[in-house]
Amino acid sequence: MPNELFPLDPTTTVPPGRPEEHRTGEPARAAGAATLSAAMRTSLDRSGGAVGILLAAAPAVAFVAADAAGGLTWAFIALAVAAPVTFGVRLARRESLRAAVVGLAVAGVCAAAAAFSGEARAFFLLPTLIPAALGVLFLGSVLVRRPVTGTLFNRLVGGPEDWRGHPRLIRVYTVSTLAGVVLHALNLTLRAVAYLADRPAVLAALGVAAVPAFAALAAGTLVAARRAIGPRVATAA
Q1: Among 221, 59, 81, 66, CA closest to 154
Q2: Which residue, of 24, 43, 74, 115, has the greatest Cβ tally within 10 A?
Q3: 3-state secondary structure labels for all residues of 37-52
Q4: What is the pLDDT of residue 133?
Q5: Which alpha helices (H) appear in 93-199, and where do they start and end?
């Protein structure tokens, strides 16, 4: 996660605001995702939508803005206000309690890193390292022929349980997982450059930008997988 599309940066990922859709609406919505635009809307909804993305980014943005205006002390004060408020709003939106707690905990860990180092950029140290771990995970899943996107999306698109034995479907999941490796590598590179240049604002912006980037990858995977399995297989599943 963590995001329910891809396990992205914990500071920027939010589950959808209407959990009941996971119980009753996912297959129908996946079946309707016949076009890239429809799949993109589905992907963004599963990432929390525009409001969810902004809420996930709020603590980091508050930290960076306060640091730029008044220094590290004010940044911690702003974070101490923004993180609990965001936590409460996410619960009010009926988001997952686990995701809200994880978001709050991650903000605390990031703040501890910044306090220990005395540098605002250290707030983004953990989010900067996460793409490296996820890139290795994605690549490893391809090497063992269990691509991550297949594990995440096959049930959502109505694919067969033995999807690893379907050449077209495994090809789709392999290609999309490798595309995820590239995105994680790019994300890591940009974050590393911004971190070394001591640009906290850029790091915060990259965290927000990662969500629609991976939502686009997820949307492409949904559409390609639906076409690969065909209507008969999808209906039977």
Answers
A1: 221
A2: 43
A3: HHHHHHHHHHCCHHHH
A4: 95
A5: 97-117, 125-143, 148-153, 167-196
- Neighbour-count burial of 106, counting CB atoms closer than 10 A to its CB (0-12 exposed, 13-18 middle, 19+ buried): buried
Q: How far apart are CA 1 and CA 190, in angstroms?
A: 21
pLDDT tens digits for range 153-210: 898 888 898 999 999 999 999 999 999 999 999 999 999 999 999 999 999 999 988 8
> 3-state secondary structure string, 179-202?
HHHHHHHHHHHHHHHHHHCCCHHH
Taking the C-alpha atoms of residue 26 and residue 103, their distance in angstroms, rounded to an integer, is 24
Residues 6+ apart with CB under 8 A from 14: 3, 47, 48, 52, 53, 55, 56, 90, 95, 99, 103
d(CA 176, CA 224): 9
Integer Cα distance of 42 and 4 in angstroms: 12
Closest by alpha carbon to 86, among 103, 69, 109, 70?
103
Count of other CB atoms within 10 angstroms of residue 20: 9
162 touches 31 (CB < 8 A)? no
| Rounded Cα–Cα distance for residues 62 and 153 (Å) | 34
Distance CA 19, CA 93 (A): 10
Q: How far is Cα 51 from Cα 57, in angstroms, rounded to an integer? A: 10
Give CA separation, 12 vs 33, 62, 75, in Å.
24, 14, 18
